[in-house]
């Protein structure tokens, strides 16, 4: 049966302006990092995307290396676009990125002009699109001059491959440098995508949110649920079959230590007292005060999208609640993307 979007899709979603731009993003965006590759049925991905769009989530975030294997998430999303969302393309924000390893040899990762432009051309083919709305430099490249990386982003906009550009996981110092270059080229940076959650607070120590506020750049926080740690999935101390914790991947077993789990259980008690699930409170916390434009979630089932959107019913925190959260949730050293921000990463 042909998909017809819900007529009520814009009724309850919150849309926030991205920095000082003319663009707005939904307060919750959907990322296709881990559950849209060959490891997941296409029909399940289609159901997740349909549910998201019906709830007002207009922003779908990808990267060239999403899958697994790399490229397959964009291929799957391209099929869903063609079968379901083609009539709604102008209501959607589609983003992708390049920076991590994508193909063999010296031109298949990092931040060179050759890699970024070639990668985006491949991404457009996989998704069946003429352009993406946002294209990101996925990580800072310490060996390529920022002028080259930012010059490639400028060219990508001027060539019509993307409407806007952004950066991901750059620290405050590198962000200032990158934005100054883009401004001089006449292509402003729209948005920054850092990891940020109650237990991954590097952006606060780094001052990144202050920098973005000062420069008028939007932000979209990825992994606000800390790869599922800030859900009810691991509260019993068990690792469910099929979860990220059960797969060999970025969620390290050491992250699920008894001390960390005790803290997460205490956070769950705070969430219950607020009438929220732990996931809902974690998303609301990232969005509190309006400093973060959008929270970028992942999902392996449509029900998880519904639960996450429920966070928007209560984004306010009392001082007492924030104090409780700060007590139980300092930075727990779970930022696996720390190297891109030139910071100390978690030990294995």
Q: Which SSEs are present, and which pair or pack?
A:
Layout: E1 15-17, E2 24-26, E3 28-31, H1 42-54, E4 59-61, H2 72-85, E5 93-98, H3 113-127, E6 132-137, H4 146-158, E7 162-168, H5 172-185, E8 189-193, H6 202-206, H7 208-215, E9 218-222, H8 258-273, H9 278-287, E10 294-297, H10 302-309, H11 319-328
Parallel strand pairs: 3-4, 3-10, 4-5, 5-6, 6-7, 7-8, 8-9, 9-10
Antiparallel strand pairs: 1-2
Helix pairs in contact: 1-2, 1-10, 3-4, 4-5, 5-7, 8-9, 8-11
Give structural notes.
- This protein has helices at about 40-55, 70-85, 115-125, 145-160, 170-185, 200-205, 210-215, 260-275, 280-285, 300-310, 320-330, and strands spanning about 15, 25, 30, 60, 95-100, 130-135, 160-170, 190-195, 220, 295.
- With about 350 residues, the chain is α/β, with parallel strands linked by helices.
- The strands form two sheets. Strands 3-4-5-6-7-8-9-10 form an eight-stranded parallel barrel, surrounded by six helices. Strands 1-2 form a two-stranded antiparallel sheet.
- The longest helix has 16 residues, at about 260-275.
- The protein is globular, with a radius of gyration of 19 Å.
- It starts with 14 loop residues before the first strand and ends in a 20-residue tail after the last helix.
- The mean pLDDT is about 95.
């Amino acid at each position: 049966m042909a998909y017809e979007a819900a007529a009520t899709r814009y009724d309850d979603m919150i849309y926030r302006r991205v920095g000082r731009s003319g663009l707005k993003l939904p307060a919750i965006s959907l990322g296709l990092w881990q559950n849209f590759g060959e490891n997941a049925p296409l029909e399940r991905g289609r159901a997740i995307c349909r549910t998201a769009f019906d709830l007002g989530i207009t922003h779908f975030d990808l990267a060239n290396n999403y899958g697994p294997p790399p490229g397959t998430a964009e291929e799957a999303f391209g099929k869903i676009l063609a079968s379901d969302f083609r009539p709604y393309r102008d209501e959607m924000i589609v983003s992708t990125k390049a920076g991590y390893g994508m193909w063999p040899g010296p031109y298949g990762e990092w931040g060179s002009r050759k890699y970024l432009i070639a990668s985006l051309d491949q991404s457009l083919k996989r998704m069946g699109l003429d352009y993406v709305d946002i294209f990101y430099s996925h990580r800072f490249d310490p060996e390529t001059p920022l002028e080259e990386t930012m010059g490639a982003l400028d060219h990508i906009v001027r060539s019509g491959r993307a409407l806007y550009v952004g950066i991901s996981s750059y620290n405050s110092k590198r962000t200032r440098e990158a934005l100054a270059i883009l401004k001089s080229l006449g292509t402003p940076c729209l948005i920054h995508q850092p990891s940020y959650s109650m237990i991954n607070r590097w952006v606060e120590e780094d001052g990144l949110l202050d920098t973005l506020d000062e420069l008028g750049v939007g932000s979209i926080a990825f992994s606000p649920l800390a790869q599922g740690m800030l859900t009810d999935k691991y509260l019993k101390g068990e690792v469910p079959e099929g979860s990220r914790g059960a797969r060999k991947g970025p969620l390290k077993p050491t992250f699920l230590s008894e001390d960390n789990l005790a803290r997460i259980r205490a956070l769950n008690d705070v969430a219950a007292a607020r009438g929220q699930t732990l996931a809902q409170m974690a998303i609301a916390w990232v969005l509190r005060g309006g400093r973060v434009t959008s929270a970028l979630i992942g999902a392996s089932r449509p029900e998880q999208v519904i639960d996450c959107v429920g966070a928007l019913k209560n984004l306010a925190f009392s001082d007492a609640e924030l104090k409780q959260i700060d007590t139980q949730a300092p930075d727990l050293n779970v930022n696996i993307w720390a190297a891109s921000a030139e910071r100390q990463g978690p030990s294995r």
